[in-house]
Amino acid sequence: MSRFVRECDDAACVLRPWRLPDSLPEDAEAGFVLRGIRRHCILCAGSRQELRQCEAESCPLWPYRFGVHPATWLRVMRRFRSPKTLMLPGFEALGKKR
Fold it and tell me: Tens digit of pLDDT for each residue in 35-70?
């Protein structure tokens, strides 16, 4: 696998700048790399909708397909899907005392 990475001559690949440690751009940050992975995954899947439904779990980039670290994605999704406190006019929130 590493031989194919070294010998890759696809200049149009969005991952090319990050394929080898010594070829990293000077200003390379994790966010730029993750955005590059996302761009690659969108091109591979065909669209953002298809990217969300991607089931290619054998791909090494699959956990990073949304452009964020997998741990960050899980934390955000847990917070997004967690039960929320319902605030109704005239009622005080449960657990809060005046």
Answer: 888 888 898 899 989 988 988 888 888 888 888 888
pLDDT confidence of residue 20: 65
Residues 62-85: what's their mean pLDDT?
88
* 3 state SS for the chain: CHHHHHHCCCCCCCCHHHCCHHHCCCCCCHHHHHHHHHHHHHHHHCCHHHHHCCCCCCCCCHHHCCCCCHHHHHHHHHHHHCCCCCCCCCCCCCCCCC
Assigned token pair, 15: 């991952």
Q: How many angstroms separate the Cα of 52 from the Cα of each of 60, 69, 71, 77?
A: 16, 15, 17, 14
pTM for the model: 0.56
Give the separation between CA 24 and CA 31, rounded to whole angstroms. Answer: 13
